[in-house]
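Fold this sequence, please.
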Amino acid sequence: MEAFDYVFFTEVLIGGLLSGVMYSLVAIGFVLIYKTSGVLNFAQGAQLLFAALTFVSLVERGVPFAFALLVTFVVMVALGLLIERAVLRPLVNQPPITLFMATLGLSYVIEGVAQLLWGTQVHALELGITDGPLLFFGIMVSQFDLFAAATAGTMVALLSAFFRYTHVGLAFRAVADDTFAAITVGLRLPRIWATVWATAGVIALVAGLLWGARLGVQFSLSLVVLKALPVLVLGGFDSILGAIVAGLLIGALEKLAEVYLGPFVGGGIESWFAYVVALSFVLIRPSGLFGQKLVERA
C-alpha cells in the first residue's frame, strides 16, 4: 500500500481554499441584495460579465489600465443604481418569484447590451500576474491563485468592516434585521437599497476581473454565478459570514473530491460535486449553516 502523500494533499487543499475565496466574493453579492430586499439577484452574473467586458475592451482600445479601471468602477456603480431605480423600486412589495423573474430577465438585457457595445469575441484579460508556482515549505501554490484570493479576501474584509462600523453599514444591518422597525425609526429604505446595489456593482467588478483573468472574458463568464449557488445553500442566503465559510468549504471539498474520488467514477466530478454537497445539506438544515430560520404563522 502506498503511503499517503500529505504534501500533495495540502497542495490540493490550499488550491481549493484559494478558489473558495473567489466563490465567497460572488456569493456575498447575492447576500447583500437578498438581506436588504429579499431579492435573489440572478443578474449578478451578467453584471460580472459586463464589468469584465467593459474593462478589457477599454484596455484593448489603448486606455491606460488605471483609467480603464476607474471608468469601469463608475460604470458598475451607475449600473447598480440604475437597476435599483428602474427595476427594483417599481416592484416593491411584489411576490419574490416576480422579483426573481425580473432579475432573470434583466440578466439577458445586460448581456444583450454588452454584446451590442463590445461584440461577442473572446478576450484574454491580463492583470500582470503570472500563473507560475511558488514554493512554500515544500508546497507549491499558484501565484495567480494567491493574488486572486488575496484580492477577494481584502474585498471581503473591507465590506465586512464597512457594514459593521459605518453609519451606512449599521443602517444596512438594521434593515436586514427588521425592515419595518428600520422604517419606523426614520431610515430611508430607497437610499439603503441604492447603496447596496451600487456595492453589488463594485463586487461584480472585482469578481469579473478575477474570473475573467482565470477563464477568459467570454459570455459563458456569466455562468460563474452558478458556482455561488451551492455556497449560498450551504452558508445561508442571508449571512455574509456563511458565504465566507461555505465558499471555503465548497472550494476545498470539490478539489479534494476531484482528486481523490474522481478516479473511481471516471473524473469530471468537480463541476457538480458542490451541488451534491449542497443538496445533501439542505435536507438536513434548509436555512444553511448561518442562515436565519424563518418562522411563518398561519
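The CA atoms of residues 12 and 151 lie 20 Å apart. The longest helix spans residues 6-37.
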